[in-house]
Amino acid sequence: MLSAVVLAALLASVVTGYLVLDARLTRAPVLADYQGRPAPSAGQNWLITGSDSRQGLSPEQLKSQSLGI
């Protein structure tokens, strides 16, 4: 019973603390509109591919890339 009361009090204090801190935030719509903003569009998707393979590198190349041996 006591642990339930302590847990409820802890939960209430966390929620209250969150609400108090959230109310103190100053919000500004800084990106709402600005000069030179692109017109709304569907956007673009980019697929970037590559490899992280380091096979075939010399010991000097490994050392210059801080990969060590």
Compile the SSE list and pairings.
Elements (H helix, E strand, L loop, with lengths): L1 H23 L34 H6 L5
Describe the structure in your own words.
This protein is mostly helical. The chain is built from two helices and no strands. It has helices spanning 2-24, 59-64. The radius of gyration is 27 Å and the shape is flat. The protein starts with a helix and ends in a 5-residue tail after the last helix. The model has no long low-confidence stretch (mean pLDDT 87).
List keywords for this structure.
single chain; 69 residues; mainly alpha; 42% helix; 0% strand
Helix content: 40-55%
Strand tally: 0
Mean pLDDT: 87
**What is the distance, rounded to the nearest whole angstrom, between the alpha carbons of the first and last residues?**
60 Å
Instruction: Compute the CA-based radius of gyration.
Output: 27 Å
List the uncertain runs.
Answer: none
Q: Which percent range describes the beta-strand content? A: under 5%
Structural class: mainly alpha
The ordered string of helix (H) and strand (E) elements is HH
